[in-house]
Predict the 3D structure of the following.
Amino acid sequence: MCLGALLHRYAAYKIVLGPEPEEEDEEALKRFYAAQRFSFRKYLEFGEKRSTTERIFFVLLSAALWGIYLYIYKLDWQTPLYGFTASILLAQSLVDSEIQELPPELNLLIAILGVVRLLTDLKHWSEYLIGAVAVSGLFLLIGLIKYRGQGAMGGGDVKLMAALGLLLGWKNILLVMILGCLLGAVIHLGMMIILKKGRVLAFGPYLSAGAIITMICGQKIIDWYIGFLTSAMRHQ
């Protein structure tokens, strides 16, 4: 719960600071990076700008996810790694939904957790290294496609998938991508129809949800799918 409270404050801090300027204005960029310098006073002040209800929900959800991972993985290495990652992903989702930007420092934290995961499972090191480039490489190629002067995929999404791929391995990161795309398509389409939302999609929250689900029951989903395919092939 303490971790959730700290990360919610940091998410609020990043939201108030806002996204990086798009124009190539050197002075604007200097002012932006000067404002980005961490200040504990601003960190506390900006955290109060979010509603109390949102803060409580964030903290309780973060704690609940830690409880779920503790129940599933017991006192295994995966419990703290997945718990920390889930809390960070909640913060990433909040920031991305507000300013359409994923803080690189939070992606870096997930990547560090990925390195720890790799070191605790060196026997399967290739799965994690392949996972780091499998989906992020695809997203990078998609990001080169321009739509109205903007990339079809943000750089933050590419870095997020690289960090998560290093943590989860290539099988799980493919599942994260599939779940994220499905959730994004269904939920955002519903929001466009019901709430008249625009076409611009903050993809980070859906990828984060896919990762949280994968860390809870990813292997069961993969096993079910493989079993389904095997059964279908036998009946052909």
In short: The chain has a mean pLDDT of 86. The chain has one domain: 2-225.
